[in-house]
């Protein structure tokens, strides 16, 4: 019994040290956009399933974070004509992590595109462009204390834009 316990303990230790030597965010299903800070809070978020990637980025700390918002821009690079405008069909949903209250974002898309139907000359050159997913998601609150986690199908890129509120203006009467 002691030998079995000893072998189990050694195996667990060796396996644990081997797994711990991989930095968080460096696995095949994780893509770190800007990964600074403590990664212990990533344990609360789910890992990406097969066919998906988990993108993680952290926002820098700001003096007044309440005057900033973040919008997620998700899409993929596609070879298209230079005349028509395109969008990729999909839905981006906020999901709350049970027991933690943290939010991550999950994109569901088959990669189908829609676009305008303007005639293009057959010999017109093709251009590789970043085509956005047509989501109706509202901007998210700026929070430098937690990572922003986005799970997308393979082949999609995640970008983000930080918005800053301007100074308050007084509205004239009348």
From TrEMBL:
Name used for this protein in its record: Ecotin family protein
Gene3D superfamilies: Ecotin
InterPro entries for the chain: Ecotin_sf, Prot_inh_ecotin
Similarity section: Belongs to the protease inhibitor I11 (ecotin) family.
SUPFAM superfamilies: Ecotin, trypsin inhibitor (SSF49772)
Organism annotation: Thalassobacterium sedimentorum
One Pfam family, short name: Ecotin
Superkingdom of this protein's organism: Bacteria
